[in-house]
Amino acid sequence: MSETAAEAARPTTPQNAFRGVLGRLNLSTWAGIAIVVLLVLAAIFAPYLATHPPAKQSIMDQLAPPGGGYLLGADQFGRDIWSRLLFGARYSLAIGLFAILTALVIGSLIGMTAGYRGGRTDILLMQVMDVILAFPSLILGLALVALMGATMTNIVIAIAFTATPAFARIARAAVIAQRDREYVQACRAMGFSGGRILFRHILPAILPEVMVMTSLWMATAVRTEASLAFIGLGLAPPTPTWGGMVREGFENILSSFHLALFPSLAILILVLAFNLIGDGLRDAIDPRLKDAS
To answer: What stretches pass through the bilayer (predicted)?
Structure first.
């Protein structure tokens, strides 16, 4: 009996949890991963790929069309669009990454605690999360940034705050599905603490589901940051952000549509890539969802 309990209580490693998932990823998912990797590399090596300093202005080259000395043209201040796209990718990816990682950690802790303990703790924590979920994420993020100020830290906090309830709910549901299984009961019978059961045994089992939510909310974070910048609540100029570039481009949309076109395409491609990754991970975790659709 003790050997059976010990074997059942042996923790599942994250490597084992993801090995089967990675083997079932489809081609579109790998395409999404490749796009994200390329954009990350472009952001990292932006100083080497940029043809001009992103904030350098040239009055003689205002609204220059694509080609010549400017690969994607120049904006109304004569700044190189290609260079600003590369450096803008740093801010879009960094804000999305830090915001979603913050929401992932805080939301997962809340959800795991609520799901494992149940009772009043579960009710109280989930009611708080439901109150936050009652507000549209963009409107709530807009209100928070307007109150705190449009700095990079505040934008990260605002986006993380809106995303935390989603991670809490997915983690809670996954923990509830695991907490009464045999390996968890074996851990309790062996006297393991609740923290050890949660983080060494249950957490690896729910990681794939949490990672699906992470990739999907990365797309939401990028859209939210771009939306905030578009309405004037993003990082202050001359910091290059994709949403800010779209906003500036709309001032000359009739004469120089490429000013708004290229940053819009960048946002579209990045959001599409994260959605492809999220959908592929979801289908790999539960192939029945793919067959049902």
So the answer is: 27-50, 91-116, 128-149, 155-177, 198-219, 257-278
